[in-house]
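Exam prep: given the inputs below (a chain plus XIL), describe the expected output before reading on.
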Amino acid sequence: MKFLFGTILVIIITAASFLEKPNPAFPLIPDGVKLNGAAVNDSSLKEAYRNDFLIGTALNASQIEGKDENAARLIPVQFNSITAENIMKCEVIQPGWNKYNFDLADKFVEYGQKHKMFIVGHTLIWHSQLSPFVKNIRNSDSLLLFMTNHINTVAGRYAGKVNSWDVVNEALNEDGSLRNSIFLEKLGEGYIRMAFELAAKAAPNTELYYNDYNIEQPAKRAGAIALIKKLKEAGVRIDGVGIQGHWSIQGPSLKDIENSIQEYSALGLKVSFTELDLTCLPNPWDLKGSDVNQNFEGSALMNPYPHGLPDSLQVKLAKCYEDLFKIFIKYKDKIERITFWGVNDGQSWLNNWPIKGRTNYPLLFDRNFKQKPAFGKVMALKDKQ
Ligand code: XIL
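Solution:
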């Protein structure tokens, strides 16, 4: 009898533990809920890394408006920082001269406040996604007036609400020289200093960042460091540098990344990785001898995995993320935030850039919001500590 009772008990416990076993492919766990006795931080990036740095994501309009139910459940569980992917850019927020559209930006900020998130404004001064009226400005006085009004109005509206602004975005060329933009052309290199000064006045308690891609690479890094030093010497406030982190599974140079964290933080700046994603697809610029202006849209060669990422590449992606997060953990005292550029693979801009209509796999969650092996690797690094 005793034996029978014991056997039944064992069967029940085994069955129950099997049923309750957390399904690693189902990440949508509400805050505070425990699975199988394990704390929620076993499945939550922001919880796992809460003592290290913020974990962020970029939000698109439908996510901000809560139209995507799965995203709405996942985002607050996984992330404690949000960046506006597009809706604070000039073409959306000031579509016409002195005509502002704050609808989505207000909702974005409310969303962040509701979930007690670190809110990142992206971006005040950038050569891209400018409204047509800005591109048509012919004289420098008008451009200066635009810049002054834009920063005063946008940064001023969210002062005390947005925690960090990408004040100037992508002002450098690959060789470290200043990018030729309407701002440089009409206002000279002082436009960067002016943008930071305006932002500091309009949003005194907000962190001010310079944000760019490839600034972990030596030549461009040297340019960024020279730029930051000049700003500091001029007495301008700059609090951080954002390394975008649009890399690939071919592997960014880990040494360059380490050197960058060390060198930027030696300037007294916070370092963040602001737009992290790793493309898994061929890059048109890597095709030696190919014409990058060639139209690759619809080319099967350039879109090799429309029905799923092969296991070998899934493993490679996971290893890349693991290697990156090992470095991030090593320098956690210098890093403020790691933000992924999107919530899941299906929403990533890399499905449409640099070639439209491809199927890419750059993030930690797949198209069904399931955790990918890369998610497991990033979480496992914290288990080991
Ligand atoms: C991208 C968005 O993700 C896309 O939706 C949009 O079409 C183009 O811009 N560097 C940046 C980001 O600073 O603002 C860009 O975001 C990606 C590259």
